[in-house]
Design goal:
Radius of gyration: 23 Å
Shape: globular
Number of helices: 15
Structural class: alpha+beta
Order of helices and strands: EHEEEEHEHHHEEEHHHEHHEHHHEEHHEE
Distance between the termini: 46 Å
Strand content: 15-25%
Strand order of the largest sheet: 1-15-2-3-6-4-5
Length: 559
């Protein structure tokens, strides 16, 4: 929903920068962490000292609940966090890099694996949830999963919560079979799930649940260490069985997360994540998360007329552009279609442009946007008109691009979606470069001297929000209002984060302005729209956040 109060998306190369601007260079990154999912034995290995008291109490309750429910201790806990995307919305499925961070909030899948000689072994998986009144217990027979390609029921708009666990289970069994991994038969399992990621808030609770479930089943069926890259790729495919054409950002951020770091996630040639430290500024750089309390698009339930449509629009735009400008066949993403990054890279190759400096990137963005505008002279095209541009019959186009995942659309907007993707990808490069510069330059600067860097980062976030609202049409009036209030009270930048059509905003705030921004949001948004919220509910709706650690397998004997 486009908001008239948000200005049209400014060109990314006109975003203000400090004077003199920092040298444009690839983002500073630390050596990639070990690619194996770590096994931890202390909560301190997962959470920071700030979060440890609350999380210790939470894990105590989980241990006690598990013992009371199943009369036995848990064997391990598979833990995956949610994510907040700082910038780079809806460009991962076009294979452009994005800049998310893992959150402290997570999904815990506690498991007891019963050995064959245990009297209680009954070839059943009992799946329970700490919030049992909302998520009732489900029971499955392990024999039903002898074929790893079993079907998961996702009929209707209300997907049962257990479907996300089953998606992870299916992924674990399917990829173990395809990769000929040595595994034991699916054992009797007792499972208890606890999640503190707000559902349908655009923070990837569903992806975290699938990641944790897949890891839990792998840990129960194999003694091998599990590679992070394998877990990411398997989780992406696993979530697609629910009808979601996921791009991979959510899973990568959850699995590769590093405390106090954002992640520059790239998808070519393979999925990779480079940590970029975000807290070395004076005053400290902070982020404030605000939940609009408008239910964000649940990709498994509302994807057919929101998320999945955007994926198809991006793919069809790339294919049409490649055909018009004869750049050759684009590399196919997951057997589905070409990508806008593929077209962008081909244009750069044809023109002989070497990427890596700001001037070249600006020139490439300008040229690709010009070609998009030349190809698509209006915002709406019927399916017949799109098929004509593609050089195909409408029924053939629909069969190839609009049946693998459920789609509900009679008209497609190829121009605005493409411009957003291309310009947003450039904003990611500028933002990550500035963060890297701050690590070197801002440690010694006073507050007044560091302000231009905050302003430059904030301007990129604001431009991203305007583009999400006006070009990609994935914002909503409530989210627009939250971003405007945050800026009025001192946020350098504020934007939607996540799938969109509701959910949360993330705001870049100097540490000395955090209290002002949170108070302003409570006064002008929550007190007006949701006066019935209690104090504790308000604390869960708007709060400061920090980047957290990624997926782990926890074997903690005593919490």
């Amino acid at each position: 929903m486009t908001s008239a109060s948000i200005p049209a998306s400014p060109s990314p190369w006109t975003t203000p920068h400090p004077s003199p601007p920092p040298t444009y260079s690839p983002p500073l990154s630390f050596p990639p962490p070990d690619d194996l999912v770590p096994t931890v034995t202390r909560l301190h290995d997962i959470y920071s000292s700030v979060d440890l008291p609350h999380q210790t109490a939470r894990w105590h309750a989980l241990v006690a609940r598990f013992k009371a429910l199943y009369d036995r201790p848990m064997t391990f806990v598979a833990r995956s966090p949610g994510r907040v995307n700082l910038i780079g919305e809806h460009i991962d499925y076009s294979w452009f890099p994005v800049l998310p961070m893992a959150t402290v909030h997570d999904v815990l899948v506690a498991v007891c694996v019963l050995p064959q000689n245990d009297p209680a072994t009954d070839d059943r998986i009992i799946l329970s949830n700490v919030s049992s009144s909302k998520y009732p217990t489900r029971v499955f027979n392990t024999h039903d999963f002898q074929d790893p390609f079993f079907e998961i029921s996702t009929s209707g708009t209300d997907v049962d919560w257990s479907a996300y666990f089953l998606a992870g289970l299916k992924g674990a069994l399917m990829f173990s079979k395809l990769c000929a991994t040595e595994t034991t038969p699916l054992p009797t399992m007792r499972v208890l799930v606890d999640g503190d990621i707000p559902p349908c808030a655009g923070l990837s609770a569903s992806s975290a649940f699938v990641c944790s479930s897949l890891l839990a089943v792998l840990a129960a069926t194999t003694s091998s260490m599990i590679e992070k890259s394998f877990l990411v790729n398997s989780s992406v495919i696993s979530e697609r069985v629910l009808g979601v054409n996921s791009g991979g950002m959510d899973q990568a951020a959850s699995v590769f997360g590093v405390r106090d770091h954002a992640l520059l996630v790239d998808f070519r040639p393979l999925v990779s994540a480079k940590p970029v430290r975000v807290l070395d500024t004076v005053p400290p750089l902070c982020f404030v998360l605000a939940n609009s309390l408008v239910v964000a698009a649940n990709r498994a339930e509302t994807g057919p007329d929101t998320y999945n449509v955007r994926v198809v629009e991006a793919v069809l735009a790339a294919e049409i552009l490649a055909r018009k400008y004869t750049v050759g066949r684009l590399e196919i993403r997951d057997g589905f279609g070409g990508t806008l990054r593929g077209f962008y890279d081909r244009v750069c190759e044809q023109e002989g442009w070497t990427m890596g400096d700001r001037e070249s990137e600006e020139r490439a963005v300008r040229e690709v946007v010009r070609r998009v505008q030349e190809t698509f002279d209006r915002d709406q095209y019927s399916l017949d008109e799109v098929a004509e541009k593609l050089g195909q019959k409408t029924e053939d186009m629909v069969r190839k691009y609009m049946t693998r995942f459920p789609i509900m659309a009679k008209y497609l907007n190829l121009r605005d979606r493409s411009i957003h993707v291309i310009e947003e990808s450039f904003r990611v490069k500028c933002f990550s470069s500035l963060l890297a510069s701050s690590t070197h330059h801002l440690r010694t600067l006073s507050g007044s001297e560091s302000r231009p860097y905050f302003d430059a980062l904030g301007a990129l976030m604001n431009a991203s929000q305007a583009s999400c609202a006006n070009l990609f049409d994935c914002s909503c009036p409530e989210v627009d209002e939250l971003t405007q209030i945050a800026r009025r009270y001192g946020a350098a930048g504020s934007r939607i984060t996540g799938t969109g059509w509701g959910g949360c905003t993330v705001s870049l705030v100097r540490a000395d302005k955090v209290a002002d921004v949170i108070d302003g949001l409570k006064k002008e948004y929550y007190a007006v729209r949701y006066p019935e919220l209690s104090g504790s509910q308000l604390e869960q709706a708007v709060f400061a956040i920090r980047p957290g650690n990624g997926t782990v397998l926890a074997k903690i004997e005593a919490v």
